[in-house]
Structures are given as structure tokens and as C-alpha cells.
Design goal:
mainly alpha, 6 helices
Length: 173
Amino acid sequence: MKTLSTRMKYLRSREAFSAIVLPAVIVWGWLNTGGDIAWSLRIAALAMLAYILVQGTLYWHLKLRSLEDQTPLPAYFDMVFRSFKWSNVIAIGTMLLVLLLADRNSVSEADIGWSVGLLAGAVLEHINYYHYQLMYDTRASFGHLLRNCRLRKAALGIDLAQSGSKAGRAAAA
């Protein structure tokens, strides 16, 4: 349990660090470019990425508490994370639409490039949390990938599926 607890603390801390430091470093870099920037476009994409990183932070925090207290995930877990999952899809879709409809005369290629890149990062994080594990940073997880020749299901996605099936069984009883 100690190793698993340490791993969850690491994941929670890494996600929280990324959610705070990554936007700060990126905005600092933008501020030092000196050119015109379509702030609303770039900040929207950056906020989308940070929003999903915060979801990961919350998930690993709840998972760690559940492990340490030897209790199930909180009753609100299913509702909150299903809402997050759908809000991600809606926000990513909206952002894609905004990018497609952006006035190319008032938005630079750099603005589009940054926005598309950050949005791609948000999509990858969403997949990593809700569908398939994309990060393989330990020997054991990389070994699993090589042995099975397929991506693992995401831990959050598995927990959502399990909490949904428990809720369905409870409603049927």
C-alpha cells in the first residue's frame, strides 16, 4: 500500500504542478514576445488544458484519500467526473469551432498554432484520464504496454465505469 500511496501522491503533485506552472510559464513566454497576441484565443485553449489537469489533480487526490482511509470514492465522484467529462467534450468542440471560424486577418499563424497545440494537449489529457492511459513512465507500465501491445484503460475511466454500474445496480434494487 505504501508504494501505491506514494505513486498517487506523485501523480497528484505532478498534475497540480502542471496545472499551475505550465500556464504561468507559457503566459510569461507570450508576454516576452513583444508582438500582438490574440489573448482570448490563446488563453481559452490554455485554460482548457489547465482545467483538465485540475481534474486529474482532484481525481488522484480523491483516489489517494480513498486508499489511505480504506473507503470507496465519495458518493459525488460519479456525478462530478461525468460532468467534467461532458464539459470537456463541449468545451473542446466549442474551441475547435472558434478556431475554424477565426478571422484569419485578425489572428496570426502563431495564435492559431499555439491554440491548436494547447487544444491538442487538452484532447490528449482528456483521453489519458477518461479513456486510455497515454503516459507510461514506469518500467512496469511500459512492460505492460510491450507485453499486451495495447494501451491500458485509464484509471479514472475504469472508476467511472465501476461507479456507474454500482449506481445502476442500486437503482434497480
